[in-house]
């Protein structure tokens, strides 16, 4: 056998030997990465469990205190009110404000996302996308100042018009408050705050629509809007739902903007234009925490536990909705 034939015969064996020699190092690196990734995932679960345990332990004194003793020890809880009766209106106000903001923000966010992804020229889309993302970086206290000092007086004529002309609808029942430190104003400000989150996620999902789907719709004679309706929106439905849930989570936990705008009250009222009817959990904690005694702090932490559970349920529901359409979703 010639030298060249011998080299040819030996080459595969040498290559296999080289691969075998390098494999143990790669296996060690792979196992190390797997351990680190698993640890990171477990750390998230442990942190979530630690937060839940902390809230339960610190809220337990208020949860086990009789209603009469609770009202005597905490000045802002009415006489004879149990802890659940105290938390109930706060949960109602929190959910109502968040859902109101979501109803305002989602249609506008979808429209902006579609304009950036499918209508605007590339240069305009890039600049507009940057401006929308920049809105998310504005601190909530700035939104509170803007909403309370500038926006609320300018919305007052609109709220009075709604109360005068649509007051037969419970949501717009009058008389409208002056100044308009009402839940409707809070809803508008929260909608502006969650708008960049929903827009950014929806825009990225719409941009992931398979090009062949869009071209097929256009080739069949669809207009641009029909193409979006038949190809883009179905593909991005789960992603839009995920974006809406992220925005809802932000609205549920917002504190300073609500605290600086809303005139608080504790009732189950759907009158969005009347002051002194609603309060949210986060704003109430910020308002009462500084002057609370130990039992009062425990009661406030109990309201925080309720908010924690609400947020957890919202995120679990969002994951369930996304998982139902994971085979045909721009969110995965």
Automatic annotation (TrEMBL):
Topology versus the membrane: Multi-pass membrane protein
NCBIfam families per record: phosphate_pstC (TIGR02138)
Similarity remark: Belongs to the binding-protein-dependent transport system permease family. CysTW subfamily.
Originating species: Cellulomonas bogoriensis 69B4 = DSM 16987
GO cellular component, one term: plasma membrane
Protein known as: Phosphate transport system permease protein
Primary role: Part of the binding-protein-dependent transport system for phosphate; probably responsible for the translocation of the substrate across the membrane.
Single GO MF descriptor: phosphate transmembrane transporter activity
Classification of source organism: Bacteria, Bacillati, Actinomycetota, Actinomycetes, Micrococcales
GO BP annotation list: phosphate ion transport
SUPFAM superfamilies named in the record: MetI-like
Residue ranges occupied by any ABC transmembrane type-1 domain in the UniProt entry: 91-318
Source superkingdom: Bacteria
